[in-house]
Amino acid sequence: MTLFPIHTIKSAPEGSKPGLQTLQSAFGMLPNIAGAIATSPLLINSLVGLFGNVHGGSFTEPQIQIVLLTDAVTNASTWAVAFHTALALEAGIDPADVQAIRNGRLPKDGKLSALSALARTMIEKRGRLDDQDVDQFIAAGFGKDHALEVIAIVAASTITNYTASITRPPLEAAFQAHAWAG
């Protein structure tokens, strides 16, 4: 098994340090996944750029966390499921809706359900959505621009989900209560 380092800002390659500083400022701590991603300055800087765009877009933080948690479950990324469970609860998402997503179901809230369904379908169909998939999303009150914006969130989560699958970062103590086995 190939072991990947979990970099700190001090140990990271020079090109990764600004990205790690940005993420540490955003989260108030440096997530282990960021330390793993920092092995590649290209990848950490790509994530930071997407992160800034996603969190500066038109979705609310709870809506973003719905997509990120859905993506983590769909991609079976145990680290990301625990992390985004904590962030979703912190963002005020109903714990029953968080648990539904963790169990592979949709949230009760109609709009959040449509958002979660689109994110899951986008991954499962590898982006090959049909008109019905998009029409159901728009019928829930979202715009066509939102359907495209979900792609950016999925892209950001793909970076972390795939990196976690390859590097297997340890789950921080703060997220242990939300550990997920899939």
Account of the 3D structure:
With 182 residues, this protein is mostly helical. It has 2 domains: 14-55, no CATH class; 61-178, AhpD-like (Up-down Bundle), CATH 1.20.1290. It contains 9 helices and no strands. Helix 4 packs antiparallel against helix 5, helix 4 packs parallel to helix 7 and helix 4 (61-74) packs across helix 9. The chain is globular, with a radius of gyration of 16 Å. The mean pLDDT is 94. This is Carboxymuconolactone decarboxylase family protein. InterPro entries: AhpD-like.
Please give the structural blueprint:
Blueprint: H1 17-27, H2 32-37, H3 41-55, H4 61-74, H5 78-90, H6 95-102, H7 110-124, H8 131-139, H9 144-167
Helix pairs in contact: 1-3, 3-9, 4-5, 4-7, 4-9, 7-8, 7-9
InterPro entries: AhpD-like (IPR029032)
Protein name: Carboxymuconolactone decarboxylase family protein
Organism: Acidisoma cellulosilyticum
